[in-house]
Structures are given as C-alpha cells and as structure tokens.
C-alpha cells in the first residue's frame, strides 16, 4: 500500500513553512511550560464547559469524550490515527477506549518527548506509536485507519485541503474522521481576522463550509456539524483568567514577554468570537463503503 513520498520531519525539504512555524512555537520552553502548567500537560484544545468557572482540564476531557461518542459504526481491522496529538491526552484515552493501536502524528519534538514519557508512566507505550511527522504527510499506509481524530490542530496546517486528502487516503471504507478546529464563521473575510492570523503566522482559517467542501472533493461525506462556537469564547476567557490569576507563579518559569503575548493573543480570540467572526464545534466525516 502507498505512503506519501516524504514524511521525515528531520528533513527540511519535508517541512512546509507552516510546519516549521508550528514546530518552532510548540518546541519553545515558554510554550511547553505554559501548556504544562495551565492545561496540565495533557490536552491542548478547547473544552466543553458546564460553567464559566469550571477547570480547563475537566472541560477539555469532556471534549474528548464528546468526540468519542461521535466515533460510531467503525469498521474493524484498522488503527486509530490522531493528527496533531500534542501531549497525547486524547491518544491515551483512545488507547483505553478501543482495542485498536493508536498512531499519534505530531510535528513538535518537545511535545512528543513528553507524550512518550506520559505513555510510559500510564503503561500504554505498547499501544501508542508517536510519530515525529506532519499531518500533511502521514507515514502510514493507505486504508489503514478505522478512525482518524484531530483536536484544534489543523488550523496550523499550511494546506488544509492536503490534510483532508491524507485523511481520505488513510481511512478504510466506512471509517470516520472526527475533529474540532478553531475556524472562521462561514463567509467572514480574512481581513477581519488579521490580529489572529498575524499571531499564528497563517494567511487564513478554515470554516465549516470549507471543511465540507474539501472533504467532498476527496470523497468524504460530512455527517455531523455540532456548532459549539460559544465554547471558543468561554475557553479562551477561562485560559486568560487562569493565566492572569497565576501570573506571579507562572513568571517563575515562563518569560513575562511570552505571558504578555499570550494574554494579547487570547484577547484577539475572545474578541473575534464575541463579534461573530469565529466558529468552533464538533464534526464527523465518513468515507463511504465502496
């Protein structure tokens, strides 16, 4: 079965500009410490909150379980692929949820090192393979996955349509793709998102309709779009609150300049959500049975 022609992230010819920007950011000591201390070093994604004061970790875990509940009617015989797996919080839950092996695809070497340590501590290293790789060029064979999974990671891709093509290549007939991703609202001009785009060094964001169109182009059908855009504002507000409350403590290991930039970036996401320019929710796509 075929594999993409280039998937070694140590080879600079394999990395897109977006890959390099994402890797440089998430490999930085400040970012690593921030996500460890504020998110708990397990998950780096938007949570589903029952209340505005709920902990980030509890809300983040709820998102994982909501996506699991959407991963229904899967074929048998394949693996689970987690695109943009971060510290592996979801991968470890998926390894317990299913008897399938999990392949975690992530571009950040620093995150992957922590991911492997956490897997070893949880006793699941044999169930999870962590790949230092881009989700635009996944080092796995065609039709090898029953389930492809991604949480708030594909926004960093330089070519999101290519990521959807990789998903279609990986999925077995009947397999499904579940994801969340911070997006623009359908029809929003990218010029209205400039502060956010400048921060993440990308020219645009996806939107729900763009994901649907990219998926249809490669033979995937969208079955579910559960719009939870209000959670984007609630999540970034909660992260900002916690960061401000713990500022003095965080400055012991994270540079004040990084924390200043983070606060400003969080405010841009909050403002964009409040003004109706941003979207977020849970989606499921299916590869039809041939």
Short description:
The chain has 290 residues and is of the alpha/beta class. It has eleven helices and nine strands.
Walk me through what this model shows.
With 290 residues, the chain is α/β, with parallel strands linked by helices. It is built from eleven helices and nine strands. The chain has helices at 17-27, 29-38, 56-70, 89-97, 109-122, 160-170, 194-200, 208-217, 229-245, 247-250, 256-274, and strands spanning 79-83, 102-106, 128-132, 145-151, 171-180, 183-184, 221-227, 278-279, 281-286. α6 crosses α8 and α9 packs antiparallel against α11 (256-274). The radius of gyration is 18 Å and the shape is globular. Residues 1-15 have low confidence and may be disordered.
Brief descriptors of the model:
single chain; disordered N terminus; seven-stranded mixed β-sheet; alpha/beta; two-stranded antiparallel sheet
